[in-house]
């Protein structure tokens, strides 16, 4: 997945979640005010307030998109990065820490420059091994 | 090859969101504002499509059971037609509100984080 695709997926997920929550809040407020036999003005005001509160809560719980920091894209592969670094470090803890940092930094640079993160685990490991090889040299 | 401890802080560069922030330009900002607008338009179209699908399913159900006493489909369809514009306007308002809030919060985080 490329960074711009991850950004679009992030924005779509946020939009769908906020709209879903907002509509559910409006439906709930509508049903409650209907049961309470309120007049139309109060019902409208309650529905608008419910929409604002529902959407605001949902939007407030979001963060910046993945391209702001590529951490969100790399962290799911932390295990792969650690495994490749362990493989190249051959038991040296300091070398492993160094390699983890180098691999992650190089991967971040590659992703920012438009590289595609391989979807298959085997391809991802091969990609990380190539980065580790450069880092270890 | 033995490394000194000074190399370890590089890990922070990799995982710390604040230190890993890429260069964020005006173009990046505008691209995301446009993306938020486009994604909300996509969500709005999806919701309208689901409404249409629900209406079509209900109409099919009413047509199939037209002889059943308990299905007064003419009244139900009339109700749907009366309510459709109100419901669609309310959905559009919620989507617009969501887009506005998402853009504002995005700008707020962009300038404050």
Q: What report would you give on this structure?
A:
Chain A is mainly α. Chain A folds into two domains: 3-60; 71-136. In chain A, 77% of the residues lie in helices and 0% in strands. Chain A contains six helices and no strands. In chain A, helix 1 (3-35) packs antiparallel against helix 2, helix 4 (78-89) packs across helix 5 and helix 4 (78-89) packs across helix 6 (121-136). The two termini of chain A are 28 Å apart. By secondary structure, chain B is mainly alpha-helical. Chain B has one domain. Chain B has three helices and no strands. In chain B, helix 2 (26-64) packs antiparallel against helix 3. The two termini of chain B are 38 Å apart. Mean pLDDT of chain B is 74; it is low at 1-10. The interface between A and B is large, with 43 and 43 residues.
Mean pLDDT of chain A: 85
Low-confidence stretches of chain B: 1-10
Task: Give the number of helices of chain A.
Answer: 6
Secondary structural class of chain B:
mainly alpha
Using DSSP, what is the number of strands of chain A?
Answer: 0
Number of domains of chain B: 1
Strand content of chain B: under 5%
Give the rounded overall mean pLDDT of chain B: 74
- Oligomerization state: heterodimer
C-alpha termini separation of chain A: 28 Å
The major pleated sheet of chain B works out as:
none
Tell me roughly what share of residues is in helical segments of chain B. over 70%
N-to-C series of helices and strands of chain A: HHHHHH
Outline of this structure?
The complex is a heterodimer of chains A (137) and B (113). Helices cover 77% and strands 0% of the residues of chain A.
Features:
heterodimer; A: 137 residues; mainly alpha; 2 domains; 6 helices; 0% strand; B: 113 residues; 3 helices; elongated; disordered N terminus
């Amino acid at each position: 997945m490329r960074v711009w695709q991850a950004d679009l997926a992030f924005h779509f997920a946020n939009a769908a979640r906020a709209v879903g929550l907002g509509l559910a809040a409006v439906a709930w407020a509508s049903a409650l005010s209907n049961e309470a036999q309120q007049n139309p003005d109060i019902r409208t005001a309650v529905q608008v307030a419910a929409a604002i509160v529902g959407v605001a809560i949902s939007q407030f719980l979001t963060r910046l998109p993945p391209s702001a920091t590529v951490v969100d894209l790399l962290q799911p592969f932390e295990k792969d990065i650690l495994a490749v670094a362990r493989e190249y470090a051959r038991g040296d803890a300091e070398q492993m820490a160094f390699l983890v940092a180098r691999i992650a930094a190089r991967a971040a640079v590659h992703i920012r420059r438009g590289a595609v993160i391989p979807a298959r685990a085997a391809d991802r490991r091969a990609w990380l091994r190539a980065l580790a090889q450069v880092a270890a040299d | 090859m033995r490394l000194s401890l000074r190399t370890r802080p590089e890990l922070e560069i990799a995982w710390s969101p604040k230190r890993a922030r890429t260069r964020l330009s005006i173009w990046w900002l505008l691209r995301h504002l446009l993306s938020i607008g486009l994604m909300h338009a996509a969500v709005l179209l999806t919701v309208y499509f689901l409404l249409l699908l629900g209406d079509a399913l209900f109409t099919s159900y009413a047509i199939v059971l037209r002889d059943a006493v308990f299905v007064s489909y003419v009244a139900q369809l009339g109700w749907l037609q009366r309510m459709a514009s109100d419901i669609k306007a309310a959905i559009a308002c919620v989507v617009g509100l969501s887009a506005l809030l998402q853009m504002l919060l995005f700008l707020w985080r962009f300038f404050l984080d």
